[in-house]
């Protein structure tokens, strides 16, 4: 071990993905494999994917890998064989399908580095993995073919990003209506309570504790209400929603370029 401190960590979903990819890579390339081969791929992929996630080197422990392998073996997705002083592991064809589906099929937005990594991994090992489809059932082979299509994880993430961007743009439009109302000189003579009562709260403005934002504001102390009306809406739009939407649009552009789809949503 180097002189640098290496953190011991639990198996988070991100670490699971690194380990799962390491197992699939080792097994698809060499068939059965030892812990040394798994460690090579796990350290390779971990160093690649976790590069920007911590200021300290992050160690994925062999015991974490062994626990995942033991679980896969119990579920019938892998085999563990001891030959003299060596232990050999191998993923079964159904194990690849199981791990790839957990990796690719998600309804949640992934960090861009996760999406890029999964897309890279599937593209790099697709040919070796798909050779195993001959021993799967026709239904399983079809599922494997679908989730290993080029760019499938990127396509799914683009759909998720589109939905998020649309929601945020609706929110921003409602904020702009509020800001337009508050900046209108015709409303400058209104009392604070009157301004709040007349706020044009569109459908994208969220409720607070099952109350409308108007009701929530009216129940707050005067100082908080004053601050929200004076700067709250403006600051949230200018320093959060606007740059956040721009970052998502740029993220979408980068991902779309990976699969040759650079058109933007309206």
The radius of gyration computed from the alpha-carbon positions, rounded to a whole number of angstroms, is 26 Å
Count of helices? 10
Biggest beta-sheet profile: 2 strands, parallel
DSSP helix fraction: 55-70%
Order of neighbouring strands in the sheet with most strands: 1-2
**CATH homologous superfamily descriptor of the largest domain:** Winged helix-like DNA-binding domain superfamily/Winged helix DNA-binding domain
Strand percentage, roughly? 5-15%
**Count of strand segments:** 4
Uncertain segments are: 1-11
Task: Give the C-level CATH assignment of the largest domain.
Answer: Mainly Alpha
- Class inferred from helices and paired strands: mainly alpha
What's the CATH architecture of the largest domain?
Orthogonal Bundle
Euclidean distance between termini CA atoms: 52 Å
Shape: elongated
What do we call the CATH topology of the largest domain? Arc Repressor Mutant, subunit A
Multimerization state: single chain
Q: Report the average pLDDT across residues.
A: 89
Helix and strand element order: EHHEHEEHHHHHHH
Explain the overall architecture.
With 266 residues, this protein is mainly α. It has two domains: 7-150, Winged helix-like DNA-binding domain superfamily/Winged helix DNA-binding domain (Arc Repressor Mutant, subunit A), CATH 1.10.10; 159-258, no CATH class. Helix content is 64%, strand content 6%. It has ten helices and four strands. It has helices at residues 13-30, 35-49, 62-74, 93-104, 112-130, 138-147, 152-183, 192-198, 213-218, 222-258; strands at residues 7-8, 58-59, 78-83, 86-91. The strands form two sheets. Strands 1-2 form a two-stranded parallel sheet. A two-stranded antiparallel ribbon has the order 3-4. Helix 1 (13-30) packs across helix 2. It is elongated, with a radius of gyration of 26 Å. Mean pLDDT is 89; it is low at 1-11.
């Amino acid at each position: 071990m180097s002189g640098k401190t290496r953190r011991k960590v639990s198996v988070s979903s991100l670490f699971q993905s690194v380990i799962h990819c390491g197992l699939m890579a080792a097994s698809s390339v060499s068939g059965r494999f030892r812990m040394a081969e798994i460690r090579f791929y796990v350290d390779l992929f971990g160093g690649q994917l976790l590069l920007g996630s911590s200021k300290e080197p992050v160690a994925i422990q062999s015991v974490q890998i062994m626990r995942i392998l033991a679980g896969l073996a119990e579920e019938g997705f892998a085999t563990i064989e001891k030959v003299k002083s060596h232990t050999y592991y191998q993923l079964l064809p159904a194990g690849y399908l199981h791990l790839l589906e957990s990796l690719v099929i998600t309804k949640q937005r992934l960090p861009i580095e996760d999406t890029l990594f999964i897309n890279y991994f599937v593209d790099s090992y697709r040919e070796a993995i798909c050779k195993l489809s001959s021993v799967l059932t026709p239904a399983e082979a079809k599922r494997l073919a679908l989730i290993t299509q080029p760019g499938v994880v990127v396509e799914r993430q683009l759909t998720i990003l589109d939905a998020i961007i649309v929601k945020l743009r609706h929110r921003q439009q409602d904020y702009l209506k509020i800001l337009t109302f508050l900046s209108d000189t015709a409303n400058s003579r209104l009392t604070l309570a009157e301004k709040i009562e007349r706020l044009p709260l569109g459908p994208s403005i969220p409720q607070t504790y099952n109350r409308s934002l108007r009701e929530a504001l009216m129940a707050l102390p005067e100082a908080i209400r004053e601050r929200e009306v004076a700067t709250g809406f403006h600051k949230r739009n200018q320093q959060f929603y606007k740059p956040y939407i721009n970052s998502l649009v740029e993220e979408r552009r980068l991902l779309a370029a990976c699969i040759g789809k650079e058109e933007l949503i309206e």
